[in-house]
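User: My collaborator and I are trying to settle a disagreement about how two of our proteins should look. Neither of us wants to argue from intuition anymore, so we agreed to look at predicted structures for both before our next call. Could you fold the first one, then the second, and keep them clearly separated?

Assistant: That sounds like a sensible way to settle it. I'll keep them separate. The first protein:
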Amino acid sequence: MQQFGVAFRHAPRRWRILLITACLGLVYGAAGTFGAEPPGQTNVERKPRAAKRQVSPPPSLRADVRLVLTPVTVTDLFGAPVSGLPAETFQLFEEGVEQDIRYFSSDEGPVSLGIVFDASRSMTGKLERSRAAVTRFCYAAAPDDEFFLIEFNDTPRVLFNFTSDPAYIEKAAMGITPRNWTALFDAVYMAIAQMKNARHSRKALLILSDGGDNRSRYSEREMRTFVREGDVSIYSIGLFGGKFLQRHESLLRRLSDETGGTFYQVEDVADLPEVVATINETIRRQYVLGHVSANAEDDGAYRKIEVRLRTPPAGQRLRASWRTGYYAPDTR
C-alpha cells in the first residue's frame, strides 16, 4: 500500500485526476447499490403515498366547507314518527333564505343517549313506574347505543357514565330516592356537558320531570344558550299532577322544540311505558339535513333555521320538529 502511495505521488497529474475520478465513481455506485430496495420490492413504499396525494377528498369533507347538520323529526297527528319520506319532501331556510340541501339521511344509526331523571320530593308516588320506564327505554335500544344517567333534586349527579349495557343503568336507577327540591336547569347543563364525551354523532337527551326549576345556579337563559350550542336533540316527558304548572310545561316544550326533539305530556304514570316506546322509535327515525350556509360571514351570530314539508303524502297531516338554529363560527 505504501509503494502504491509513492507511485501515485510521482505519477503525472493527468493520470492522478483520472484515477481519483474512477475511485469516486466506484464509491457512489456502491452507495446506490446498498441504498436500493431489494429485487421485487422496488418502490413498494413510495407508490401508495403518491396515490394518496393524488386523491381529492369528497366535496362534503373539504376543510373549507362548513356543513351544518340539522336533525328533523316528523310525526303524525298522534305523535307517532313518520319514516320513508324522500329528500324532496323537505325545504330548509336560514334566516328566511332557502338553502340548498347538500346532505340527506334517514338511516338508523347508533345513538348516544342521556337520561335526566327528576328525583325531587314531588316524584314520590311516581318513582317506581318512572324507573321501570327508563329501564324499558334502555333495554329497547340498539346494541351499539350508549347511555348515561343523571338524577337531580337539589343538585344534579351522574349516577352512571356512558355504557352500552342497560343493566348498569337499571341498577343505578334503583338507588334513586325522591327528596328535596328541583335543580332542572343545572341537570340539563350537566347533561349537555356530558355529551361532549359521546362516541356517536347522533345525540339525544330524555328528560323526565314533574316539576319546574326552583334550585338551580344557572338561569333559564344560560341553560337555553348552552343547549343551543350542544347539538343535542331533547325529548322531554312532563308528568302532570302535583306541582307541575303551565310554565313548566312551556319550558320543557321549548327545550324540545328548539333542539329537534319532542315534548310529551303524561297525565297518568300508567301511560309512561307507551310514551317511552314512542320516544325510542322517534329517536331512531330522525332525518338529518345538511346545508352549507349561503351567508359566509364568520360573525358568531345565532342563525335561525326553518324546515318546511313541501309535499307530504296525500291525506296526511304531518308535523316537523327541528333544531331551530345554530351559532356561526366566530373568526373576528
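The second protein, kept apart from the first:
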Amino acid sequence: MDFSDEQIHRYARHIILNEVGGAGQARLLESKVLVIGAGGLGSPVAMYLAAAGVGTLGIVDDDIVDLSNLQRQILHGTSDVGSPKVESAARTLSHLNPEVKVEAHQHRLTPANALDLISAYDLICDGSDNFATRFLVNDACHLAKKTLVSAAILRFDGQLSCYKTHAGGPCYRCIFKEPPPPESIPSCAQAGVLGAIAGWLGAMQATETLKELLGIGESLSGQLVMVDALSCEMRKIKVKRDPDCLLCSDTPTIRDLSSQDYTGHVCSA
C-alpha cells in the first residue's frame, strides 16, 4: 500500500525496523483486533495497538466507568465517570490515532453472540477478569479458528499466553480444565490489584499481539508466562496440548457454545 507523508512520519520507528518495515506496517493497518474488556488490561492493550496503527479495533464491554477504575484503567479519566467504557475508550483511542477505526460493542459477551463477534476479527485479546468469560472466549476462538492472546492479573501477579489451536497449539482448557467453583477465587474488587501491573501485563499482551499479526519472533503458543511484581520475577512454563481436552483434542465433546454453561459476563480487570 502507499503511505501518506503523515503515516510515514507517524510509523517511522516501526518502518525502520527490519522485522516490520513498510510491508509489516501495511499489514497492521489492514488488521482487525477485538479487545475483550476496556479495563486494566484492555486499556494499555488498546492504546498500544491504536498507536501501532492496527487498522480496526473492536472493544467489547457492557460496564460504565467508575471512580475506582481510574487507579489502573488508563483509557478513562475522571470526566468519563458514569459513561459507558466503550464510549470512553473510543474517545481516547480516536484522540491518540484518528486513523484507527474503533468499533464499540456495548453489550455482554454471551454464547449467543460470541462466535459471530469473534469471527469478524483477525485476532482476539482477552482482558476479562472472570473465568466464565475466559472459557467462553477460549472456546469461541477455537471454534472460529482465531488466535487468542490472553492475560490475567490479581494483586501483584499476572499471567500471559497465546492460544492457537488452529496451528496445533494447546488451548486454555489444556491448562485449566474447567472453571473453578464460584467465589473460590477472589476478583480484583475483592482481593485488590496493583494498578501498574495492569500496564506491565497489558504492554506484554500488546507486544505478543503485534508479533502474531506481523509473524515475527517466538510465539507464546505452548508457553505460559507467570509474573510476580513483588520480586520482579518472570517464569515461562511449557504447556502441552492435553490429549483428553474436552475442546481441542482429537475426540472433543465440546462442539458448540450452546453445550456449556458460561455463567458470568464481561468484567474488565
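Some points you might bring to the call about the second protein. Residues 195-214 form the longest helix (20 residues). The beta strands are 32-36, 56-60, 101-105, 123-126, 147-154, 157-163, 223-228, 233-238.
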